[in-house]
Amino acid sequence: MNPPQLLRSRLFWLGLPGFAFLLWVWLLLPNTFQCLSLEMAETQLIAGMTNRQISLHKRSFRGHVLAPQMRGLKIRNGLLSSWSRKENPFFPKACSWKRGEHGDFRFFLASWLIVSIYLILWVALSGCWQLRKSRLLKRHTYL
Hints:
The chain is of the alpha+beta class. 35% of the residues lie in helices and 30% in strands. The protein has helices spanning 10-28, 111-141, and strands spanning 32-39, 43-50, 53-60, 72-79, 95-99, 105-110. Helix 1 packs antiparallel against helix 2. It is elongated, with a radius of gyration of 22 Å. The mean pLDDT is 78.
């Protein structure tokens, strides 16, 4: 009994850890936050994950300048406080953004959407690769 062609594909097995990681982030880390923050003289850029959403955030310090020891690249993580956990749906809104004062901008992308896009692309690429291999095999066996 031979396993299906898809299970013998290296592309399938190479995509599996990425899919498992994205599922882990979406399902098992709902009440934590992780972010990477780049703080410059008058601007702060933040990329992070919280409440089952990936977020990008740009904040300006109008009229204020950060001291040189406060600037740089920082990694922050931890548990969300109870007031932050009040709205933590399993399927948050797919995509949203907010504009604030002084050029502040926030962009949110739901984790379930990223997992879905990854799964669709991974399965489609694996299927196309198997189809291509079977066509090449048929062409070379009849020659």
